[in-house]
## 1
Amino acid sequence: MLTERTLADAEVAALGECLDEAAMACQPVEMFTERHPGMQLGDAYAIQACLRQRMESRGTRVTGLKMGLTSRAKMQQVGVAESIHGFITDRAAYGDGATIPVNRFIHPRIEAEIAVVMARSLGGANCTALEAGEAVDFVLPAIEIIDSRYADFRFDLLSVVSDNTSAAGYVLGGHSRSLGSIDVVTEGVVLTCNGEVKETGAGAAVLGNPLEAVALLARQRAALGEDIPAGSLVLTGGITAALPVKAGDVVTVHYQTLGTIRLRFS
Ligand code: OOG
Ligand code: MG
């Protein structure tokens, strides 16, 4: 249940503050679920909402939403087998071809993702992939930069939801395409680092169809009394395992029809 809660508001606020400060200081914190054994998924989403309020109060604008742990490769990599969602912001957006200092993060990893922009709002407890497709304006290739605020990138379901699903940055690039002109299920992706192929996959890795991830996002938002607003950018989740990056790395993600995104880390 996404709304079930046991923590007091003051505890939720304190945990939100702890994660917010960890991200700003680039200092990892210990996972806190052991200290709150009765904590529920609703508490974790409440801590995430608190983080969002703190960022918005500093002038950060939410640009969209992201799904996480929507592919088997991702679930196996972090040992959490449930799809989750978080939010993304204007301060975390980088341009294609950017050079990004790794010292802005604790232990960054990159992910190849298919992104969509919503033409209209989408909601509903029974939202389907078909309805999701009808609400999509266009499709874009994306790289997400994730950076867990927990030591050693180790967490459980409630910790990672609280930590805004490790969201830390994103890059859009390539070409935008209408849904009718691309098959997001068979869209292939090749991720390279320093000229070496590191990961390969296809859109189908994401819940069988990235539009299933958009529909699941709508259902999860509905459970929280929210929708996916019109105009939102939605990252549908990493297709392959995430790749850790270090200073000096040059990474590219080639999409079969959506084009290529390049990044350098310094
Ligand atoms: C959680 C975030 C997962 C994705 O695309 O699966 C995520 C993590 O792996 O740290 O963004
Ligand atoms: Mg991701």
Note: The chain has six helices and 13 strands.
## 2
Amino acid sequence: MDVTLSPSYDAHQQVVSIDDAESGLHAIIAIHNTNLGPAVGGCRMYPYSDKAEALEDVLRLSRGMTYKSALAGLPMGGGKAVIIGDPASDKTPQLFAKMGEFIDSLNGQYISAEDSGISVSDLKLVAQNTSHVLGINEQQAFGGDPSPLTAYGIFCGIKAAVEFKYGRSSLNGARVAIQGAGAVGRNLAKSLIDAGAEVLIADINEQNNQAAERLGASLVAVDEIISADADVFSPCAMGAIINDVSIARLSAPIVAGGANNQLAVPQHGEMLRKRGVLYAPDFVINAGGIIEICRQYQNGSVDDCYRQIETIRDTLTQIFQLSSEQQICTSVVAEQLAEERFIGDSVKNAVQSAA
Ligand code: NAD
């Protein structure tokens, strides 16, 4: 398969795949860019219909990680791994052991962590064969699970968006519609409720709905959350949720949530702007988890980690201002700022090493 022909190919530094009949492992690792440091990004397990679909996903996700780490000010590049398989039925210790060997073969150029379909216990099996795995040390804050810190970053980002849009520094009385009551959605709901916001939430999983309801959130039907009467729509479930159909149904003037790759295509960023919707780019607002993963990598303090996550608020405010001044959508402004960091730095390094 020629990866350069893939629609999501973006001059990725390295893309490797494995098909191992013995363990049943079919996986791809994509390293997008390592100008700022080793490529860090989660390992996802999903029943992709074929290898081309998996390749698209890993190329897109790894690129996103480069932009996310650059804008979060981390000394890290972007990478991602995908395992083709059903997390409900295809997991075996042999498969994860082989995945460990596969990651190890890249000699630390790619460092893995959790992503959807992969748990801490799966990653521990992977780590038997490689040291290039983060987020598995349960002695770490939050047992190594970064989702509470991802949620904290989104909370800070929602504050920035509400302040920019309405000139209000408090979330007291704000109505936030959260799509997805998983790890991120529920942690976010709790912080918002504690801050006096009214939270509407919808999940396809009834147990997660009930857990959110116990926190004080009000349940909304799954297909009505996007059109719920709210100040903020916060996608915390799956990607491509901002599309032609959903934009027409969206009621909230702010979109600010944790899901990766929220825009189905980049042009949806401009569609939101033209409708007067303030969009907090996903790879900026959901960086709390990768900031925590970087803290584990550098063995930094939890207090410093919180402080760094709080800078998401300043970064978003800068993006909102530039977007308003230049009449360019926030997602494009954010990409430009990130590129200044990771491409700018590589240019600087090349000049320094040539001198
Ligand atoms: P999760 O699997 O714990 O939660 C996702 C929830 O979304 C589940 O409860 C699921 O039932 C629900 N869901 C799926 N489809 C839905 C639909 N159509 N409508 C309503 N609910 C639906 O995952 P998570 O860790 O909470 O992550 C949520 C999102 O944030 C994902 O897109 C993930 O990639 C992204 N993200 C997570 C982290 C992290 O630290 N966990 C970091 C960055 C980005």
Note: The first helix runs from residue 51 to 71.
